[in-house]
Amino acid sequence: MEIKAEVNRQLAIIERNTETVLPRDELARKIERSLRQERPLRAKLGIDPSASQLTLGHAVVLRKLRAFQDLGHTAVLVVGDFTRRIGDPSGKSKTREPMSPEEIERNMRTYREQAFRILDPRRAEVRYNSEWLEKLTLAQVVGLTARYTVARMLEREDFQRRFREGSAITIMEFLYPLAQAYDSVAVRADIELGGSDQRFNLLIGRDIQEAYGQDPQVILTVPLLIGTDGTFAMSQSRGNYIGVAEEPEEQFGKIMSLPDELMPQYYTLLTDTPWEEVASLHPKEAKKRLASTLVAWLHDEDAARRGRAHFERVFEDEQPPADMPEVVVGDLLDSERAASIVDLLIEAGMASSRSEARRLVDGGGVELDGERVKSSRDRVPVRAGAVLRAGKLRFARLVV
């Protein structure tokens, strides 16, 4: 009876705020077996190294993975360095371009540190799927493909749509979900977690594990977090993201910019505070409380206080931040102590290219000493200590 009560307790924690747990009865059996054998379950999460930062979208599923750890189980984080060379078009209307090994390596450098802001490193394994996928021979790859049919693969919604529209679907794209499924075989996953857009791929993992003689994994999906634009799922490619390792001031400011209607989802998926507790607050106060909670979680309490103080000084009191980077720009000045605004933005690290700098300026997002710069063709007078601002959150003090 004691084991049954513990199984039910763990199920209640695991199922909280999830979208799908399939099959639920198998998860209950796996938990019971784990308790009886004193063997932790292996909960797998695959991370696609398409960009250099993990976002709050990743934090939703990482938080669920941490719940497994807190229940005594092992988190297995699989970084898809090999599968990213294939490219998964899930939810996309066309083939996604593969990435080079150099790009992937650059993106992965800080993944461990970022993930361990949320996960407990003592109960975690970090694996790279090149470890086993690079070693497969052609005969083994052919053997893998023989375990799944084209008809089943075409059940995936985005493949169906593209097939009806006559859009190209390459054989390589069929290999992505099979390779992801083989990851589960390689790490002997008991459970695999993912976003709701990964449900089809996770289900293939069950079939492939069974074909290789393993007990099939249970799949668990979580809702996709809507990004700062209030419309699309959070992603770096859309620019609507909040990074888990961004500076506290930037995190706080981005959270404060979220549309009011996203507050219930963010509280539900990213905090332990029930939305009902804060629903009656003024939207700005609800956001400040959310921002303080999330910054403290990803950094610490002092960082949360700094983030709030920065936001209130800059956005409510309309004062420049107390601390900002200093940029030496003397070499950019002409005889009249003026400089190209584009050159200033690049020197300050506020734009990575001249075209990006021009877009910032012409979009009305650049100020110098509180005055908006009207055109990217402008040369602006620069005084010592002038404050350059790009967008809402980036500031620099110019040193001549």
Quick structural summary:
With 400 residues, the protein is of the alpha/beta class. The chain has helices spanning 2-15, 24-37, 56-70, 101-108, 111-115, 130-133, 138-145, 150-153, 157-165, 171-187, 199-211, 248-256, 263-270, 275-278, 283-298, 301-316, 341-347, 354-362; strands spanning 20-22, 42-47, 74-79, 124-128, 191-195, 218-222, 326-328, 338-340, 366-368, 371-372, 379-381, 387-390, 394-399.
Overall 3D geometry? globular
Helical residue percent?
40-55%
Overall pLDDT metric: 90
* CATH-assigned homologous superfamily of the largest domain: HUPs
The total domain count is 3
What strand order characterises the main sheet?
Answer: 1-6-5-2-3-4
The CATH architecture name of the largest domain reads 3-Layer(aba) Sandwich
The strand count comes to 13
In terms of structural class, how would the helical and strand content be classed?
alpha/beta
Sheet having the most strands: 6 strands, mixed
Tell me about this structure.
This protein is of the alpha/beta class. It folds into three domains: 2-222, Rossmann fold; 248-316, no CATH class; 326-399, RNA-binding S4 domain (Structural Genomics Hypothetical 15.5 Kd Protein In mrcA-pckA Intergenic Region, Chain A), CATH 3.10.290. The protein is built from 18 helices and 13 strands. The chain has helices at residues 2-15, 24-37, 56-70, 101-108, 111-115, 130-133, 138-145, 150-153, 157-165, 171-187, 199-211, 248-256, 263-270, 275-278, 283-298, 301-316, 341-347, 354-362, and strands spanning 20-22, 42-47, 74-79, 124-128, 191-195, 218-222, 326-328, 338-340, 366-368, 371-372, 379-381, 387-390, 394-399. It has a six-stranded mixed β-sheet with strand order 1-6-5-2-3-4, with helices on both faces. Strand 5, helix 11 (199-211) and strand 6 form a beta-alpha-beta unit. Helix 15 (283-298) packs antiparallel against helix 16 (301-316). It is globular, with a radius of gyration of 24 Å.
